[in-house]
Write a structure and sequence with these properties.
The complex is a heterodimer of chains A (170) and B (425).
Chain A lengths: L1 H22 L2 H19 L5 H25 L9 H26 L7 H23 L13 H17 L1
Chain B lengths: L1 E4 L1 H20 L2 H20 L5 E7 L3 E3 L3 E10 L3 E10 L3 E3 L5 E6 L4 E10 L3 E4 L1 E8 L5 E4 L3 E2 L2 E5 L18 E5 L8 E7 L11 H7 L3 E6 L1 E2 L2 E8 L4 E2 L2 E2 H18 L3 E8 L3 E6 L2 H12 L25 E6 L4 H12 L3 E7 L11 H23 L3 E5 L6 H13 L7
Helix pairs in contact in B: 1-2, 4-5
Classes of the chains: A mainly alpha (170), B alpha+beta (425).
Amino acid sequence: MRAVFCIALVALGIALIVTAAIGRRAWLVLLGLAALGGSYAVSLGAFSGPRAAVSAPLAGAGLLVAGECSFLAVDRDGVTRSQLPRRLAWVGGVGLGAAVVSSLVLLAWSARLSRSLGVSIAGTICVVAVVALLSVPARAPRADGDGEPNNDPAQDDANATDARSRLTQS
Amino acid sequence: MSSTPSPKLRAYIALAGAAMLAGLATGRTELVAIAAPFAGYVALGLVLRTRPEIVITTMVDRDRLLEGDEIKVRVELTSDTSVERLILTLHPAHAFAAVSTALWAAIRVPAGGHDSLCFSLRAERWGAHRLGTIHCRATDRFGLTDLQLPTQRLPVVQVFPRRETLHRIVDPLELQATAGSRVSRERAEGVEFAENRPFVPGDRVRRINWRVTARRGTPYVSERHPERNADVILFLDTFRDVTGPGGSTLELAVRAAASLAASYLAGKDRVGVVGFGGVLRGLGPRLGTAQLYRILDVLIGSEAVFSYWHKDVSLVPRRLLPPKALVIAITPLVDDRAIGALLDLRARGFDLTVLEISPLPFTQPGDTPTGRLAHRLWLLRRDALRKRFEELGVAVVQWSGEQPLQVPVTAQMAFRRRVRQPAAA
């Protein structure tokens, strides 16, 4: 039953990511990655120990690579054919780095701190702090001027009218 | 310049947070290990992001062009810092269309680097238009933030209406006293032979035709037709503009006026223009290529301005309507004020001809029987109006833009050959 649920989640995740790439819907990528991560979380219940420890860096790197590829596909207009090899190399490097970071986290876990209420509270605070620290600079737009695009055709018409009136006066 | 978080940044933060919380809740470090790469990626991207210093310069290869011509927009980019991806999108104004090439480009600008892009646009409609705007979006190496650069506004260019070549044009009935390329009916110094007549005191000796004199035994002189030019006034009705999906009557009228002006000016005639409508605009008759561009400047500024004010030709300055001028009215014949002005011009003795810009392609009969009947009555009323003009010796020829302008002009010439204009009423 657990295996079926895992496979269903993986299929859902892949379907969402493919749909996002075809329809260029970035928010679907998030759902797809969440489904893939959820399937891994569900599968963790089936095994533990060294086997789980080995799988985590691979899963983390795989998810990040999947995310990078998905966003690359969603924003494919921004990448020309000549830039594609460079971007793919970047994605490969990111996957490698992700595996290393994930392994380092597991290595730190191997210190085996005693599980207590204080440690859980400290961990929760750390998680909230990390997410908040990442969110605050990302959310605040750096507005240094009028960077909004002018999508108003009426503005162009007004400019043209101004030009016409200048011509008339001359 | 403003930066906004990309969807990728939001997704990665959400995933990292969710995985960490799930790890805490379940006590599985593997979930935290999955979250760590996402959190690290975001943290590294935000720390290493740099503020690009990009200078964008836009240039166009010309500021005047004809309808249908292409104009090249060159975008020069200079950046002090490295920009991983710079996406430029050109949004052309409604009067321009892209020429085959895409109107966007994604490039990578190295630090201290320089790059340039070229876009091609085709002018679709005459007028003075801003070419459009260029939107620039820069993303960092990690793709976490989008930096929206200030929108670049392209310059205003003048699009002149495309002119048709007219091989034959309507000849004016009266010519002016100045030299030109039309053969006058008068007798004076010229090239074209008119007749021989007996010598009278006061005739110049050099005009004596010695062969005829020898044959007749008495002195004869040769009369010749002088070469003169004409004044042509293009009378543009701008009271109403009947618009439709494929254009408008004013668009066609301006095209016709430009073609006629170029043809008459090429024949060394003096051409002027009067825009008679809600706003009275005009240009006195003059010669030359410079006058053609002055006329085009007036024409591309033409627009129908709605007005209730009753106007007649007495408001038109006298210098814009010189005596003995050929007045070519270009009108859809839908406004009573314009029709009244044309009848008034004819009554004042002007040599008038009417090029009717047909509003029929832009109008549809109503769906109801009443609507269809009203449309038929309207058509009958227009026929009656044309007949009234023809009775006054004024040629009224329709043009809908589907056929060359030469066709209605030839029809006008045929009418004027067939019908002698009666004296002004």
